[in-house]
Request: fold
Amino acid sequence: MPRKRLRLGLLGTGVAARQLYLPAFRRLRHRIELVACASRRRAKALAYAREAGIPDVESCAEALFERQDLDAVLISLPIDRQPEYVLAALAAGKAVLSEKPIAPSVAAGKRLLAAARRHRRPWLVGENFAFMPHVHRLEQWLRTGRLGALRLVQVAQITLMDRNNPYFGTGWRREPKHVGGFVVDGGVHVAEVVRRCFGMPTRVKALTAAFDPALPPLDTAVAALKFPSGVLGTWTSCYSAPCTGPMLRVFGSHASVELDWGGVTLHEKGRSKRYPTERDSFEAQFDHFADVVLDERPLKYTPEEALDALALVQRIVEARG
Amino acid sequence: MPRKRLRLGLLGTGVAARQLYLPAFRRLRHRIELVACASRRRAKALAYAREAGIPDVESCAEALFERQDLDAVLISLPIDRQPEYVLAALAAGKAVLSEKPIAPSVAAGKRLLAAARRHRRPWLVGENFAFMPHVHRLEQWLRTGRLGALRLVQVAQITLMDRNNPYFGTGWRREPKHVGGFVVDGGVHVAEVVRRCFGMPTRVKALTAAFDPALPPLDTAVAALKFPSGVLGTWTSCYSAPCTGPMLRVFGSHASVELDWGGVTLHEKGRSKRYPTERDSFEAQFDHFADVVLDERPLKYTPEEALDALALVQRIVEARG
Reply:
């Protein structure tokens, strides 16, 4: 007997919905049915519906949430608007998958968490890095001592956020109402990896800069970090310089690892071995969400963990001065 | 007419004298004549003299400094002993080339500088990184805006200092009387590059760790840095983890550069170009020293600059907590 399909509605049809979700949805047709979508701009929702093969376009969030043929909604709106819609969807009895970061600030995230606990429906924060198989491989290596005694972690998110980048043009990103601009928006991803591998830092000593006036309120942050195990780290976020390279390096007494979007590379005794990731992280995330909603599986990634990831990177941008 | 040769005496015949100086001296026979050497252990001095083709071995520093057939002495002793011998050699009328760091601490370096100013003979601190042609290339790129507007500098000195490393066995390095152990001893090199490219940092926020008890007083330091231009940086020193990779990266709005011992690599618009160094830095340093002593050329690297390099890295190891 074929498994039941998750009947999903989409609120927000922006860059992420097109570039990141659609390829995953196409591979998950057996598990997820896109039933309806809505956007503040109806023309955008109609275009997305055509591209994604979604039969219905709703005129507003409320209409989407009230549909009785939906199990769940995926909310990808400007960060500062997310909390109110997450709560409205939960209140309407829908399971919710909401884009990262969990909220525009840690304070707003705590309020959202407290309010969301009053509802019984599942809520997953869509942090795709929590679903990367190669991140889990790294976690396992660290847990089993594959690198020897751990010494250092280095974060380096360096990228040129200019008109060639599709996220540059997003209006709410150019006049952000969330904490820390791109440094936080992009930084929560790698903060999630750091958090799950090393825990929350016990010391954060940071400096920030706003080099490019087109990227308010800041585009660069550097920090020295210390973790409960004694491991030290550096953090570099810079959205005003071009770079390719791993976003995370971990150094142990015997070996080191580089992690990027596509996999991990283990450096050991002068040799390097590449382990490409086994599955697209959005596909894994959506598949898990279907398991949670349809089969009542426990969440593999809790909103509390998503709040910690935000807290880690917010602490870096606020430790300035 | 052949140029005059610098008549040089060596005090200290340890790892650096064998592995770093000898190959350079062999290429500089036309410019430098090794006349005599001395070491605390006479057998070691005799062995070195045989290997280097040095005719005379003196029994002590005083005997070496009093020789009338020497223009200059090269002093490479345990860091904490350097200042007294630098001053004694200058007092004996010899020009001096002394190993980096300038002194075992900034305070000791300031005292040494004040005392050395009473003598008229030239004194060069042997910071070979100040004589790397590819470091000068990097300096020029930064000065002429080759990378665009400067954003970030990343220092990463990560290496496993264990029994396979010849410096590990040095007695005075295992029980260091100088500040910061290997982190300072090795760190002054890259501190010199940072200092000459970006100036002295205006902010240093650092954390340190002592992971390996065989490497007292500490083997690891991380820091967030800010420079007068507003450029931010991270600093990582770790002598208890294996790694290969560039020791310095600089990121600008248009391009980035990686620097290692052998050259620089420019990354620009998705392409990479390698610029190998043009000359061994020890050879360039010794050649310059001969120019200074024999031809009264001005010092290209002053003891004041060497003191700044030490101050930069000492500030990192002392900014702990």
Summary: Residues 34 and 218 of chain A are 37 Å apart (CA to CA).
